[in-house]
Amino acid sequence: MKQPNILIFMTDHQRADTALPEHPALTPRLTQLAAEGLSFTQTYCPSPHCCPSRATFFSGLYPSGHGVWNNITNQQALSRGLNDGVRLFSEDLADAGYDMHYAGKWHVSMNERPADRGWKEHGVSGVAGTRHGPDWEQYRRAAATEAEPQERRFGEIARHGYGPFRLYGSTGGEGNAHDERAIEGALAALDEVESGDAPWCLYVGLIAPHDPYAVPQRYLDRYDLDDVPLPASYADSMLDKPRIYKRMRDSRFGQLSPDDTRDAIRHFWAFCSYIDDLFGQVLDRVDALGQMDDTLVIFCSDHGDYCGEHGLFAKGIPSFNGAYHVPLVMRHPQLTPAPGARVDAFASLADIAPTLLDVAGVESGRHFAGASLLPLMQGQTPDNWRDAVYTQCNGVELYYSQRSVKTTDYKYVFNGFDDDELYDLRNDPHEMRNLARDPRYLPMIREMCRRMWRFAYEQADEHLLNSYITVALAPFGPAEAFRD
Question: What are 404-435's pLDDT values in tens digits?
């Protein structure tokens, strides 16, 4: 088989369940892609944040390997870019003769652009010079010119001294300006590759459905609020969870009534429908070029959104499933030969880089935290395939040390800042009952700590190794990595 073209369509904040055909979100083009291709139903990101997850996607490494831990574009950044010596799959493909094109969100390094890593740029964002978040002068002007709101307005959450946070709303008839430009760039890139002989790779990076869920009204009109249920975990009291979880829910998202919550979910679903139409524009152009069956199409997201689970929205701390579980759908007649198949084995965004090199026939010889998905794409599960997925988080803009281990049966979360968590996923799939304080589960906690520390050792994650009395708080320490 000749080297396939590669089309990567990455959204921002999209939950995994919205990519399933049975989900209420209306996404006919994605549903068609899944019917003709393959869905990975248990795909996870390494961190509940854009920058570290995207760096993992491009490098095949976890944050401890690539060096990006949180948002690189604000003053709380723990790093501004990738560690020295980190190589991205785009460089390998470019060296192998691929015609590389990039449109949309970057958000991997403030020191480099896509063009520095083998790509031709067609309008990119999240590059050097970008700043996210306000500065002192913005707050000074707000204090002088803006009165404090007397009550919460539609689609907003009131925050004294910060200004209101817009969670959802209608844009009338306008689409998302950033994403419309990204699609224009993608279509321009496809015009360029039309007459070329080299295989091509096109990355399209959207910011939808990132909050605020600001959606053209015509997409909202597709959904009846009465048809939107509250999540199964919505009524979680949070009394057995780390205090920051409850504080976040009660002081912010707790302002939303049940109907407000359902309306926010409706807007999120509508945003996914909007994304689907943009995705369709790119697919139609590839089809018009007559190259659809020569192209590996990948639809994915950098991380998820709680979307009402446990009464929360957005992402970050906490460590619930909604922020880490991401969509991954692929299509290529030869590489995914069983139309409509689903793979339930654990997959990771760290698997994408080695997978792309594998399907392109490119030898790299370097270490990846992930592994090629190609055998799974072709219906074969390697005997040594992973039986757990891991996360690495040192906080978002508030710094918290957090790691988790998830198997089919249990999920353990080490919270350096508060109580740990243990969930029996077979009997409690919505993570409602924290078992970490139950002494009957101490052997399981020890086993999960052993897994956590072994993974940390394998990935050179030394951020938790300090043995000083005030910070060495795991119930079982790093020596567990070396016990049988």
Answer: 999 999 999 999 999 999 999 999 999 999 99
